Amino acid sequence: MKKKTLKVIFAIVILAFLFIQVYPVLWLFISSVRPSAELATKPFSLPTSLTFQNFAKVWSDGKILGYMWNSFKVTAISLILIVFLSATAGFALSKFKMRFNKAVYSFFTFGIMVPVQITLIPLFIFYSKTGVLNTSMSMVLPQVGFALPLSVMMFVSFYSFVPNELIEAAVMDGCTPYGIFVKIVFPLARNTVITIASMYSILIWNDFIFANTFISDSKAKTVAMGLKDYVGAFGNIDWGSTFAAITISILPPMIIYFALNKWVTSGMTMGATKG
């Protein structure tokens, strides 16, 4: 009887947690197809009518596509650099017996403790002097820099479970360090790569702090910045168009997550440490 009671309580807690997680997304989707007038007067009531006029309005102005393209560029370039740099650095730190391995690894782990906020002003000054402001690279560089510490740690943790005998056998067969990495070690790290890529793709796509600091040109705005366009004069907001734009903007990361969910779960539980 006691076990059944505990199971019921556990089920209720899980359902409550699931409701808390799912409700905002469902409310967003429903609000995106409600008339703006209805949202302004009864935002939390059940919809009395549905319309796709909000989506038509967002698509017709053409801005959202440009913002999504900018976000895609920043995300794609950042992920390529993050995976390449962290995978190679992790391999070197894990398998190459060098004098300063521990010091370099400690340097990367120290980077996790650095708050993003304290770097904004120095980066802004540096970018303004070098002419990098209002470019995709102004967001790519800090994204890569702040992602490397955790990514390197995950790769080092994974590579430590790759048998040294496997690498020694490849060396005996005449394989170079580059060949060992490309043909043997890196393919084994698939779960780790997918975990890092999926995790940071969502974070970079939704980034606001770097975009808000380094981007002022409308042509270089990302999705997170572009949503501010729906705030009109005196703070008036077109809620219908805003919710429609948010719905469109969150679809890519949601598709990525659900498509890679199996590998992400595997990478978080065991792939990030031992494949």
Feature tags:
275 residues; mainly alpha; MetI-like fold; 14 helices; globular
Structure overview:
- This protein has 275 residues and is mainly alpha-helical.
- The protein has one domain: MetI-like fold (Orthogonal Bundle), CATH 1.10.3720.10.
- Helix content is 73%, strand content 0%.
- It contains 14 helices and no strands.
- It has helices at 2-32, 36-41, 53-61, 63-95, 101-110, 120-130, 137-159, 164-172, 177-188, 190-205, 209-214, 223-226, 239-259, 261-271.
- Helix 4 packs antiparallel against helix 10 and helix 10 (190-205) packs across helix 14.
- It is globular, with a radius of gyration of 23 Å.
- It starts with a helix and ends with a helix.
- It is found in: Cell membrane.
- It is a multi-pass membrane protein.
- This is Raffinose/stachyose/melibiose transport system permease protein.
Helix-and-strand structural type: mainly alpha
* Major beta sheet summary: none
User: Over all CA atoms, what is the radius of gyration?
Assistant: 23 Å
Globally, the shape reads globular
CATH architecture call: Orthogonal Bundle
Total DSSP E strands: 0
**Overall pLDDT:** 85
Number of domains: 1
Q: What is the secondary structure topology, with strand pairs?
A:
Layout: H1 2-32, H2 36-41, H3 53-61, H4 63-95, H5 101-110, H6 120-130, H7 137-159, H8 164-172, H9 177-188, H10 190-205, H11 209-214, H12 223-226, H13 239-259, H14 261-271
Helix pairs in contact: 1-13, 3-13, 4-7, 4-10, 5-7, 7-10, 10-13, 10-14
Membrane topology: Multi-pass membrane protein
Keywords: Cell membrane, Membrane, Transmembrane, Transmembrane helix, Transport
Organism: Faecalicatena contorta
